[in-house]
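User: Hey, my collaborator sent me this sequence without any context and asked if I could get a structure. I don't really work with proteins. Can you help?
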Amino acid sequence: MSEMDETLEIFFSEAEDLLKSAEESLLALESTPDSSPDIEQLFRSVHTMKSSAAMVGFMGISEYAHLLENLLERLRNRKLTVTHKLITFLLDSVDFIRSMVDSVLRGEPEADPEVLSDRKSRVKPYLGIEGVSSSEEKEEAEPQAKGSRDASDAYRFYKIDLNFGKQLFYSGQDPLLILFNLSEQGEFVQIVPDLSGLPDFDSLSMYDLYISWQIVMKTKRSYEDIEDVFMFVMDDHDIRIEDVTSRYREGIDVGLASKRLGEVLLEESKITEEVLTDALKKQKMLGEILVEEGKVGPNDVKKALSLQEESRTVYRKTTIRVDVEKIDSLVNLGEEIGIGLSKLRTLLERPGGTKPMALGENLENLVKVNREFQERVARVRMFPLEGTFRRFQRMARDLAIQQNKKINVVLTGLDTELDKEVIEHFTDPMKHLVRNCVDHGIESPEKRVAKGKPAMGTIELRAYQRGGRVFVEIREDGRGIDLEAVREKAVEHGWLRPEESVTEEQLLAFIFKPGFSTSSEVTELSGRGVGMDVVKTELHKLGGTIGVHTEKDRGTSFVLCLPLISALMEVLHVVVCGKSYLVPVQAVLGADRCDDHLVKRVGAGKEVYPFRGDYLPLVDIAKVLVTPGTPTNGRGHILVFVDTGRKIFGLPVDQLLEPQQIIVKSLETNYRSVRGLAGASILGDGSISLVLDLLGIEEIFFREPVKGDGDHESEQKAGSN
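Assistant: No problem. I've predicted the 3D structure and written it out in structure-token form, which is a compact way to encode the shape of the chain:
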């Protein structure tokens, strides 16, 4: 990868983070308009975006971000007030920058010049140019403008072109002294030296002046005072002074807002009209030039651009930004491991043998340090859910505006952390669920008021950790799911007999079946199942589950249960029928030696056992995980009790070994997905052990099958193969 390609990859990666940060700050500001930290964070994001884009030559992005930066400067100085309309405008502006970034990522121009010019003109009203964008902003801006007009009018802005003749030194004048005297009259806003007249080194004369300057200064001095600085050189040299105060607002040249780069350079005499015209003729994409010259075909260019876009997209998804403190802690732990290994080597090489106690102590310390090292490495991949939740807050906000609904999005548990890979994969399910809550859960303000509800609906996104799992709840206070309508649809599809009796849980399971929702008739249920089969499928790939609870006219809640870390796990090693299995320690409540006299049989083949004052069901995993025909010794004589967050049950096992920390390898990647198993790991002795998916086991044993739910039986068979 060339240095330029690497720079572009860094830009695209940073741009995504900066735009996400700006969006989060804006959404936070809508809730707390006076939050200075959010305004500062927003300003920093846009400022960095401007600089980064300019560095890689994306001037359209840089110029537009610069305008937004000027707007945000007014916001920082309290010359603009945070309003709903302003937030909407800024969110739309962030989306526009994102679209320009996506365009250059595809190898296309940043934006159509007319579109970009139009977008720039929309920023002007917020900068105090050409009036204001709405009566609301006008009312807010006028009182502040009155208070600041006197101070603004006290300063004048002058553009000064200093084109001294080459023989200036012969008259005893020093241009640097002239510039110094000029600087005492006010503040230099801009000073640009023109070095185009410099000859090559061999032709350079130390007695000639080859440099000219263009200066913009801010001062309270009059035009005559500025002119007096040049009284001894004005007649013999080209000195031009222009009052440009009308072009400046709050110290910023707003005249640049609607001008293109070429126009600016032309005004500053950096280039000539001929140079600009010639440059514009050459402004073609590399692909266009190669196609015109017959070097490559159009399809070759399209294919290369497509591959480049895919590569950059994958690059952004597979890179993470890590806090320096996390890296430092890993470096320190790596040093400790190195020291521990050196000590062990010294003990083993010491003549006369080694004391077992000293060897054991050093080995135990090394194991502890290595365990901490593995945990810290896993934590590098952990990120708080705040950014993800803010993204869905934005989506819910935009959908509500489109549908003329009023929605308040409440976020809790923002500091709950999840593995990056888990976050990437559960984003799509969350998108479907949030969209469903807005589209089909929350009613219109009129309907809510008619039902005696507040006009504004509420959607709550909540995250919390329990044991080795993270739970994400999406809750809304809308109409709820019409269970009778669900039943009618299930009968219509042939999944349920008209006279068949099913529980509420079984009815709600139908909304996750492919093709459940139809658009043939618009009802209150219409669309509630769109994408729900995708939600369930994606969550199962992660080893997660989803639960639904609904109440008519009170709302619906979806509860997603997700693995905390995708790779590193603390497990309890057990043996069942001679097979090695690993149970996540976070879910283990305790273990007990099984007393056959305490086992109670209920129903058809179901057993329960007393534990901590309650009778809990026993689950014989050998029935679904052990190959048929494998000899068994009956029920295991040790019971391990686990809590999945939804169900507590006991696992009979033959042996209970020590807990250990493992790296989980995906079964789906290396073999195929197996219900009841979360993955596999290689143990210290080189053997392979399977990691139990307790949520999958819970569903296998405790989910009541209904007609049409054929995956239940097939998944049990898959687990026993």
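In plain terms: The first helix runs from residue 3 to 31. You can pass these tokens on to your collaborator as they are.
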